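Record 1 of the preview.
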Amino acid sequence: MDLAENYLSSSINEFKKLKKLCERALALIKPEDYFFQLDENSNSIAIIIRHLSGNMISRWTDFLVTDGEKLWRNRDEEFEQLFYTDIDDINERWEKGWNVLFSTLNSLKPNDLMRTVKIRNEDHSVIEAINRQLSHYGYHAGQIIYLAKHLAGNNWESLSIEKGKSKEFNDKKMGSNKTG
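->
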């Protein structure tokens, strides 16, 4: 596998990890929790998902040939309070956004990586565009997970290494192969 193939494969895996982490967190909360807002200036999980989906569909549709900020996208509406939707709608948006992203990423070829794409009329190499979205989605994944942890309360299950369990985890993963 050459560097370009490795980068594409690695990027897809990192996006899959973000999606899975969020879904594991979301499985620990009640459907009504998706709509909870800490205050009027904060976004609910549902709003964050609506924004992520809008971004994904805009950025990854016709990725190599059109600007990533589509004229049909209404970004501001993604952040409005939700009075007309339900958990099924939010879940459908979540899946649709990720499906567009993965469909596009899986269609890219190694020689596409240095092509130029536009996002808001700014030039980006495909690598830069992918990195930009990995960072953006990671930011929002953290918000979703943080809110889910707050809302799950005592029902929360760690998504990574539990507090106070690092040594145990490392011993299990590394055994006697520790170096450095």
